[in-house]
Amino acid sequence: MATYTGTDVSDEIPELSASDDEAAWEDEEPDLSQDSPHVQCLFCARLLNSPEDVFSHCKAEHNFDISSQIRKHGLDFYGYVKLINFVRSTNCTADHLKCVSTPVPWESELFLKPVKEDDPLLQFDVEECLDMQQDKHLEGEEALFQRIKQAEDRAEQAEAALARAVEDLQKMRQFAQDFVVNTDVRVGSSGAIADLQEGEDSAYFSSYEHYSIHEKMLKDKVRTESYRDFIYKNPNIFKDKVVLDVGCGTGILSMFAAKAGASRVIAVDQSSIIYQAMDIVRSNNLEGVITLIKGRIEDLDLPVEKVDVIISEWMGYFLLYESMLDSVIYARDKYLAKGGSVYPDRCTVSLVALGDMQRHNDGIGFWEDIYGFKMHCMKAAVIREALVEVLNPDTVISEPSVIKAVDCNTASVSELDFSSDFTLSIREDSTCMAFAGYFDVFFENNCTTKVMFSTGPKSIKTHWKQVMFLLQQPIPVTKGEVIQGRITVQKNRKDPRSLIVTLAARDMKQTFYLQ
Fold this sequence. Notes:
By secondary structure, the protein is an alpha/beta fold. It has helices at residues 51-61, 66-73, 77-90, 94-98, 126-135, 140-181, 202-207, 211-219, 221-232, 235-238, 252-259, 273-283, 325-335, 357-363, 378-382; strands spanning 2-3, 39-40, 47-48, 242-246, 264-269, 290-294, 307-311, 336-343, 346-354, 387-389, 401-407, 418-425, 430-443, 451-454, 466-477, 482-492, 495-505, 508-514.
């Protein structure tokens, strides 16, 4: 088995009120007739004098006709606004935009929020512009009556949209009231990720829209090179196979698989990072092999019935934080062909004892005196937080104890909430002031070259670090002694992507929150 040995690289909802003053609802329209260029192109940094000039520039320089796109997708004014804000926020290319099909990626109401303040493109009456183009084929009274009818239709649509907005606002108010009053777990909630509605899960996926997190993961050589070595050194698993990449991010695993001989790779991600991945794939001439799809795997119907291999980098802190394994299991049960496999195929979670009283004092004793003020009431709150950090390997005072083994090809979602006994053999006289958890990952099934990596404190550090559980009362221990205890790990039903961990040993029992 090849073990990774690379070097270390170090928004209050305003009240709706009736008003007789209609002007209060209207913003002063900016003067779009300025002499200096002030309207930025959708696809480059060029500034032009008016929206009309921008659209002419887009057509001439970027081969993008806004009128054709509006007609193609049947966009009303709100759809046009969403389209403009979508382009502004994602920086997608004109070529990509012309390839978009139904459903369009700017359907979310989030794209009604302007990206650029006082964007003249959002104040441009594009519908009137389109009507005027059509009017060129009409004459006299016919054209006038046609425009009057179209204006009436737009007014009716605007009234209907306003009514829907008022209704939605009332629903949001009621939801907020219910949420504050009903602080307990949602009725009938199973805690499963597949049961979450898209809006409930948006914060999680939004976190992966930040480019820095992808940079951090790609720079994690233990992580990235382990996946690379597994894929490149086991071409028998990928040659002429259909591969599914769940949570593809920038598409690095998909490209590894394509280079290893996969006949087709389907890459899925709900985060908007997938638009960057599309450009990345095209830049590497792999668009003929890799198909990228935006959405949650639980909400999609893939363009294939079955796949031969599922790859995913789903692991979170303490292995199970973020609960992305739920999505991999869903994909496995729905799409994996008989004889296929999920990779990584096996993972373990381990626990060790720590002896570092200085760190305990820094984290707990710190609150006794803050610039002459007592803040010891903070201790009870701080002690419940599981801490994610890189541990000093010299502070580990026990042998590790495996508390959970996960077979990714057979595990069920229900198995991911678990309880386990543990025994920690103490290696030196010390004071156990915390327990710490980490995980190991294995690529073994059908592999000619097996690969594994560890996130433990004695291994090369990774972006997963380790998770520390500080004890309220440290435990004095001697060499040769054992600490026996029990750990329970479960999803937080109020937030299924976070974890609640309960540890019991000797006379102590504490509950921690990893969120």
